[in-house]
Write a structure and sequence with these properties.
mainly alpha, about 0% strand, about 50% helix
Length: about 230
Amino acid sequence: MANSLTRSLARRLDTSPPLPGFNGRVYLAINDDVAAQPGVDPHAHYRSHGHRELRTLMMPGYGIDHPKSRMLNGAERADWLDAVKQRGLEAAIAQHPRAAWLKTGFTLAGYLMERPRIASEVDEPRQAAFHFLEFGLEDGFAGRPAGWDRDYVKARYGLEFDEGTGVTTVLLALLKKHSPLDIVLDEAQMWELEGLSGQDMPRLFDHEHYHAMAHRAGRAPKRFDRATC
């Protein structure tokens, strides 16, 4: 289902409407360089420039106020996991009225790291993408990764960035070819996307032991470094 969902989501985001719940006043308050432009229309600026720059859209802890763009009714929201299963996860994400928010700097791995309780409740990690659209946005969570690891990104994607490069720059490069549901920027995020604890697995995973066992089984990684392993 993962590849099918990625394709469905890509088609949806290519033709997505303006962001439901986008608040022009908040956008200008956060992005003061935009606000300084005489007569600027925040909606027009975001559509023409802001979305390509992954501009910040929400104040920390303050979510969107747009109940009309919810997918679920009150009863369904009380048991949202069951509602998603009945609708089908692929359709629930790709057809969600707020699906365009997935291209604002969100990554599924970032959201799982941001919401450990949700990560522990879902049956499979991609259900958390629906939670972000239906609930997380209203709760003020953006799902943007807090950081990235230079060696990990190089090993996984073959891309090199200078030390000190911001997360936004790395995301912009990766989003050209990868779905926000698949992007991973460090080992902890990788474990979360695998359905394991990103807080604990980097400490518990014995890379050298794993490499030795894989080598013994004739399946050793091409390189010895931890990111490749």
